Amino acid sequence: MEPVVLGAGGMVLVDPLFQRALVNVVRRSQHLFSPEFIGHPSGDGNDWTGLPVIFDEVFTGLYRLGRFTASSFLGLDADVSVHAKLLTGGLVPLCTTLASESIFRTFSSDDKTDALLHGHSYTAHPVGCQVALESLHQMQDMESSGRWAPFQSSWVGGTGDEGGKQQDGAAGNNNRAERGCWSIWSPQTVDWLSHRPSVAGVWALGSVLSIHLESPGGAGYTSTAAVALRDALRATNHGPSQNPWNLHSRVLGNVLYLMGSQTTGQEVVLEIEQLLRQHLS
What we know:
By secondary structure, this protein is an alpha+beta fold. It has helices at 16-28, 101-106, 126-144, 149-153, 187-194, 227-234, 266-279, and strands spanning 5-6, 12-13, 54-56, 80-83, 96-99, 167-169, 199-205, 208-213, 250-252, 255-259. Strand 7 (199-205) and strand 8 (208-213) form a beta hairpin.
């Protein structure tokens, strides 16, 4: 389960209330599962019940969506969580799997048959681990120092006109930043995109901007509706400031999404937004 966002089908934003309800049902309804899979609380309040809940935060975690963990949007703690990508800023490959104490103890034994024998080529390699520590320290310093405050402040209050098409995620809610929902992409641009005839829906959260384009032939991976916009952005050699550009975006069917880095400044985001307005009808 990837909290808040699902990658399959083009970054689908899933209703957090549904996700919270789903986890609650799984954890509270032990009778739905076979006895051998039912967790038995140890009495310390930290054990899992029902089935252990796994959160895939490879893409959504580590401030990608504006918070250290995406699961915090749901007010939940994972029994098992997986992290990568921003863990090392993409400099070296590294992935980490975290587990609650009760699950970790399950594999603690002198008997080899109880061990978690799976591993991969980069498990705990020292260079990757040191890079990950530095990456985490820098991101936490950026949060504590208010590095993203200018972006967050733009999301406090309404956008003025919010009567357009579907605006998911951070868009369309008053006092979003005060509730911990904000984006590096401006609410004005998200609102503008939502009114374009060629746009079926748009959401922005953290550093991610997802644009769902109208696709007469049907949405999904086979759609080519977003290719023209991707190519137009990639062919742009200079932004409005005349600085050289090498702008890449990802297409999943009729969905185009852009991501800033955790260090991207407002001036750069503004130029990209201007390019979007230029190339999107």
